[in-house]
Amino acid sequence: MFALRSAKGAHAVDGGFVLPRWLRRPVRMVSRLRIDEINPPPFAATIATAILFSATGLYGGLQGGHLDEVVQATTSRVGFAISDVQIAGNVETSEIDVLQQIGLDGWTSMVGFSASNARERIAQLPWVESATVRKVYPGTVEVSVVERQAYALWQRGQTVSVVEMDGAIIAPYSRSHHAVLPLVIGEGANEIAPEIVSLVEAVPQLQGRVKAFIRVADRRWDLRLDNDVTIQLPEHGYAAAVREVAELDAQYQLFSRAVTAVDMRVPDRITVAMTAEAAEERSDAFEAKLKALKKGARI
């Protein structure tokens, strides 16, 4: 094994030192460079300073545990700040609520923005069933939400809530357009409402006329009509009772008469409660008839 020596260039030091083989070529290349003829590009000093400060900031952020903040600040100022948010699928959920859950501050960077975290926060909104969040570079965030479906209004005491078909509460009742939803009242009414609501909607005489489905003692139903007539249904066999009372109305216009309640709770018997005015008129007519009968008996 031997080492080549060259008189060109200062490879030997102290009169006998020889560079290792792997260093000889780089040293020869450097020795051929003429530093005085190299022209630096414009603003080279500025660029070098910026690189130095960036490297220093990154190092400091890494050492201090603030790397995310450094990345956010750096990338947002070089063209990756979120400048546009596109929201789709929201009807009940306001765009302001979605933006608040995303958590933008005007300088939020696309690089440091977590779509998964934003999706989880948006899904916490009361009307949101699920959400999709997507980053579109250089500065757009796309949000698509799927909302929960309102089925009815549920009242217990003075509290009214919008509920889903399975009875789960969505949000407090606060918007007028929800007033068209069926109103169910009483404990447990929210969980079993679909059966009675679908039954009534299938009966032509009652379609659109029931303004409240009232659960009594969590055992049976009362139907409150739009003219305040109450149909009291039995605990068992209420589907047959609904059809029977609808037939009575079709034949005798029962719901249009001066009645306050139709009691269907006792099998094979229907009790009709009249309004106070109708009851008084009926009493007066009955008394007049008795007087007429007595007068005729004297003759």
From TrEMBL:
Cite the Gene3D superfamilies for this sequence. Answer: Cell division protein FtsQ/DivIB, membrane protein fhac
**Endpoints of the signal sequence:** none
PROSITE patterns per the record?
POTRA
What positions does the domain POTRA occupy?
80-148
Q: What is its main location?
A: membrane
Name the job this protein performs.
Answer: Essential cell division protein.
Family note: Belongs to the FtsQ/DivIB family. FtsQ subfamily.
Q: What is this protein called?
A: Cell division protein FtsQ
Species annotation? Nitratireductor basaltis
